[in-house]
User: What shape does this take?
Amino acid sequence: MPTTHQFDAIIVGAGGAGLMAALYASKGGAKVAVVSKLYPTRSHTGAALGGIGAALGNLEEDKPIWHAYDTVKGGDYLADQNAALVLAENAVDAVIELEHMGLPFDRTPEGKISQRRFGGHTSNFGEKPVRRACHAADRTGHMILQTLYQQCIKNNVKFFDEFHVVDIIMNQGACAGAVAIELGTGDFHIFHAKATFFATGGWGRVWRVTSNAHTLTGDGAAAVFRRGIPMEDMEFYQFHPTGLYGLGVLLTEGIRGEGGILLNGKGERFMVKYAPNIKDLASRDVVSRSIYLEVRDGNGVNGKDYVHLDIRPSTVNKYLEAAGETRRVDEAYIARVLAETLDVCRTYAGVDPLTEPMPIQPTAHYAMGGIPTNIDAEVISDARDTVVRGLYAAGEVACVSCHGANRLGTNSLVDLIVFGRRGGMKVADYVKHADFVPLPANPEKETEAEFKRIRNSKGKTRPVELRKEMQRIMMDKCGVFREGKMLDECVTDMQNLRERYRKDLHVDDLGSKYNTDVLEAWELGCLLDLAEVTAVSAANRTESRGAHSREDFKERDDNNWLVHTFVTRDSTDVYTDGNPKLVIDTTKKVDMSLAEKDPAFMPKVRSY
Amino acid sequence: MEVTFRIRRQNPEDPAKKKPYWQEFTLQNVAETDRVLELMHRIKWEQDGTLAFRRSCSHGICGSDAMRINGRNALACKLLVRNVGSKIQLEPILGLPVLKDLIVDMEPFFDHYRSIMPYFVNNSPVPANGRERIQMPEDQVFMNDTGNCILCACCTTSCPSFWANGKYVGPAAIVQAHRFVFDTRDEATAERLDVLADPDGVWRCRTIYNCTPACPRGIEVTKAIGEVKLAVMRGTNKGVIKASDIKVNH
Assistant: This one.
């Protein structure tokens, strides 16, 4: 028999969004538990590097509306403009609050929070780059994660560490809680809650080259999706331009913010061709495509599929001088503000960025799509914004959609803080007047059976084989450049892999305690489900927009495609139905509330 | 190249494997630039799925995969074959109960962390303009080194004083305390230093220096502990102490 716990609210996932939600829900009086498959400080928020964007205007004039404009334009006009405005406006308060919680931001000479440039962030509606990214060296995410965890300890938030949530409990059209496995024992636990809040992050492990942790396997999104909640805008997945070659480990955009330059194999600064105005600081989708095109044209370094990122002070100063800027950098400065980057390059590539350029290639990085929510982190179940009672989501797992078709650098951290906080407040409010939805009988039954199946499966295929095949196929057929026939193949490929997952799996570990063998197999099942939704969504969108770039539909099509994609699984048979039908709905229009007041927000050709 | 692993294993569920034992694995086609963690994955995924260890980010920022590699504490994702050679011995970190293979019980470690009030305290009103508190760059730098800590436990579990007495809060907790003790904005320094003045606090450190080379983040752990010792001794009656008040000769 599983143990049942009861809380006003459970927060699933302990990264930035989850901890922020936990903090605000508990400050608002709710009895909260955080349930996470990792110790909170292991969460991937800690890997975020360069900064968190907020129009503080500490170093030059800046306004939230300019931040909202950059977010909308960066998102290639698919972002819901109400959400982008909330993001930009709330960012200012949220960052100040982080400082009040003790976050050790870098400082200006006057002692204010220091800010640096970042890709796609401009002043005065795209006029020139602006210093908006607030930073703590190049470990801003680490400091956010630490600070929020510390504040949760201070506020006595209850944690269930190393409890892996595997299912949500739906009853009477509402969410009644979640089912989790305790990793240390293998026991099932039922969390009965008025509010269940998903903040489980992304699923970069769908692709072969990724900046994402091994644990970013989309299990939160998959759990929700399997119970009939749609996934929104899954075709939009960001490839970050500067992953360390071969490994995919992220090298921060802050490198270019500090003046770093991208150079092809001929030593040319190729971004002047693709983004003549702000060059290396164009938005990520643009830079990633430019790198692919350079490599395709034979301009990779040594004929290989990578280019160089150069932060050597001599290079940076040369281009600063050519641009007529007075700012100069030296080795000591770079070593201080990009300490993490230097360490990563020296450790893994044997390259010292102070004396050599860094080899880089685009790396799968961030899901713009996910569980659809409104601006208060309430999950919605359809294109008409119907709220699912008791179910919330924020952070990368959610799609508000404030990032549209491509997220700007720093806006992921902004998203966590802003929507984690709004969601936490909403939850505190909700649990005050809501009742517990009764638990159905044996809510763990189906997942328990599925775990039993995986553990006892007597097939021949190790999970690693399926995972590698999925990652290779998704990289080739559903990566930076896409095309209809390949996408259709990709959908079939994913279905075939899932068939093998169901019928021919092999695991070694038959135990209960820390059975990471079975858990990894479970995670693979989640990845396969999300990979299929991604490919289906991508095949359906016959245009190119933001991170979704179709070779057979090269233009953006605002007449037909200023809409969000909702994909729902048309089956209540959660685990045994091999290939349930996926239903696509593209009737939800993009929110254009800012464009209605100001023509600057109307979709136009996106040039940088 | 070929690499041989010798791994300390233990499985409480299996009567035959309840007691710790060594198991060897051999891997072919290994590159000098492969991470130890990658090779552990190859063992787990290709040879023996029962091998249990923690990991997440795989590039040295999450702190999950601390273990003893060839006798020294390190993160498996931060060491490459060229750093450790072709014979690799893995053991769980010492001083914490082993739960399965390379997985140890982290609760005692986090209990020590929580004991030093690891959170920012400032009950004074925020600035009237609603903006950030002012902190000068020359004060901010004192948190740079210890703010780097990822709570991986490499330092604490390399410390002979901790091995001898598990009640000792250990280097990691002191490093975390340092980050707040030297934060000019924090107002709980006196209370925090009281906790650290406990017999199981900072004075259990005998300056053995194991912790400093063990830190995968390059934090000068022993130096930080020394600074906290001086702060405990000299203190201030204002409850606020600036790092610049302390001169440490190295």
Summary: Chain B has a mean pLDDT of 93.
